[in-house]
Amino acid sequence: MTEPYTICGIPQERGVLIVVDHASNHVPSDIDLGINPALLEEHIAYDIGVANVARYMSETPGYLSILGTVSRLVTDLNRFPGEDGVIPKQSDGVEISGNAITQAEKEDRLNRFFHPYHDRVAGLIRDLDPILTLFLHSFTPKLRIENAEDRPWEVGVLYNEYEAASRLAIQFLEQEELVVGDQQPYSGKDLHATMKRQAEDIGKAYTEIEIRQDMVAEETGQRRFAEILLRTCDKMRTGLA
Q1: Peptide bond between residue 88 and the one before it cis (omega within 30 degrees of 0)
Q2: Is the pLDDT of residue 1 over 70?
């Protein structure tokens, strides 16, 4: 049976917690999404590269990460449980026919994966009181849909109402000579379920960082961004203290 999350690093109070909703493209054997299995290697299935970035960061004392363990096509952990998109019927033009399920089947998936994952994230934040929670994602350089535009940003910073940590993140990432998107490639005011419920609503400092997937598709890029984000978060911790 697939566990709903995995944790990397050593827990430490007042450190940095890294939350990776879309870390995995795994589909449990008892779930049939009704799609070509090759699509599980694409961005619609998971956030390419960021699981290893989080793992490498968590090798440093004071950094702990929690990673979701099923594909976003099974259960999208970065949604509210009542949203239709929590069990997506389509993604970037691809129909997910196997997700035409009953309400009872939907509740079963949420109880297996969604709720235990979010309960554990909430527990870590409650018990460890991190000085910063980093919600880590990656984005495709270009969507599959017709007439999609190229996305020039190398990294994006997303936030909702709370801006302090994200303003610091933008400043420090630009110092790394990266092309930084402020609320790009989309706005955190539109897509913010996890960061809102797990940080903003309880008054905790957070930022969401999105890395363009071609930058972290291989180990060299993953290790590079782990180092960049460690430097960035260390500066942010000082700025937020």
Answers
A1: no
A2: no
Locate 82 and state its tokens.
Answer: 């009542």
Cβ neighbours of residue 163 under 8 Å, at least 6 residues apart? none
Q: Determine the Cα–Cα distance for residues 229 and 54; give it in Å rounded to an integer.
A: 9
Model confidence band, residue 172 (pLDDT cutoffs 50, 70, 90):
very high
2 has a pLDDT exceeding 90:
no
Q: Which two tokens stand for residue 192?
A: 């913010």
What element of type H or E holds 166?
helix 164-175
DSSP string, 5-19: EEEES---TTSEEEE
CB atoms under 10 Å from CB of 177, counted, come to 9
Average pLDDT over residues 79-103: 94
CA distance linking residue 226 with residue 32, whole number of Å: 34
Average pLDDT, the chain: 95
Overall size of the chain counted in residues: 241
Angle at the Cα of 2 from the Cα atoms of 22 and 9, rounded to 5 degrees: 60
Q: Is the per-residue pLDDT at 26 higher than 70?
A: yes
Gyration radius from the chain CA atoms: 17
User: Tokens 């994006």 appear where?
Assistant: 156
Across the range 88-100, mean pLDDT stands at 93
Q: What stretch of H or E contains 168?
A: helix 164-175
> What's the CA gap between 177 and 215, in Å, rounded?
14
Sign of torsion over alpha carbons 53, 198, 94, 156:
negative
Cα gap 188→31, rounded to integer Å? 30
